[in-house]
Write a structure and sequence with these properties.
single chain; 241 residues; mainly alpha; Endonuclease III, domain 1; 56% helix; globular
């Protein structure tokens, strides 16, 4: 039994590493998380290209950029990034894309600025609650449990904030991750978030930049091959496993 278990573990590690290598070779560095004022080389990604910074892992470079990433992580819940970007541009144009400025906004004004991201009534409340929390940290890196205690922030949003805004070793699991790896047979379709997260954190090299790239590459691959059913038939990853 132990031999089989160890063999399965070795296969998981080998295959998860092989998938990462194939994704990186196919699409290259993705430059996530996008930051509005960055204007660099365009990565090989589908859709909007603003703010990505491939091979530049120096972001966020200051507290306001870290806050922008966190705001984006909240706004992207249940919507496409192109809609989030519109909301972020609105906030930036209004000169309130910083915690001290945003917290001073009236509820009505904030809702109007983030309207493009959808669910703006709920998200405005989430943003204000998180902004109070962000300011209370005074530059300290929060614990995962602290972030999860903020209203409206679940596992995926918390891990996105911690990985991209705070450079913490927290692997982000999104719907695309679940879709790809359940269809490839690594997990069940209805597997719990923390079990999937543990899978990657066990078998992926513990490196912040690799965590960032792997998550971003999964998204890029899913946009190309997992947008319509049947998913697995055309996935080139089938040929390497």
């Amino acid at each position: 039994m132990n031999v089989n278990t160890n063999s399965n573990k070795n296969n998981h590690k080998k295959n998860i590493e092989k998938i990462y290598a194939w994704l990186m070779k196919s699409y290259g560095p993705q430059g996530w998380w996008p930051v509005l004022n960055h204007k660099g080389k365009k990565p090989n990604i589908t859709g909007n290209l603003r703010g990505y910074h491939p091979k530049d892992y120096s972001y966020p470079r200051n507290s306001n950029q870290g806050f922008e990433i966190c705001v984006g992580a909240i706004l992207t819940q249940n919507t496409a990034w192109k809609n989030v970007e519109k909301a972020l541009i609105n906030l930036k144009a209004a000169k309130v894309l910083s915690p001290r400025k945003l917290i001073q906004l009236g509820d009505k004004e904030l809702k109007e600025l983030i309207r493009p991201a959808g669910y703006y009534n709920q998200k405005a409340g989430y943003l204000l609650t998180f902004t109070e929390f962000f300011l209370s940290l005074k530059g300290k890196v929060p614990a995962r449990g602290e972030v999860l205690n903020c209203k409206g922030i679940g596992d995926e949003t918390a891990d996105s904030m911690l990985l991209y805004a705070y450079s913490q070793l927290e692997f982000v699991v999104d719907a695309y991750t679940r879709r790809i790896f359940s269809n490839l047979g690594f997990i069940k379709h209805d597997e719990k978030y923390m079990i999937i997260k543990e899978l990657f954190e066990t078998y992926v090299e513990r490196d912040v930049f690799i965590y960032q790239e792997y998550h971003a590459l999964i998204v890029e691959h899913a946009k190309r091959y997992y947008s319509k059913k049947p998913y697995r038939i055309n996935d080139p990853l089938n040929k390497i496993l």
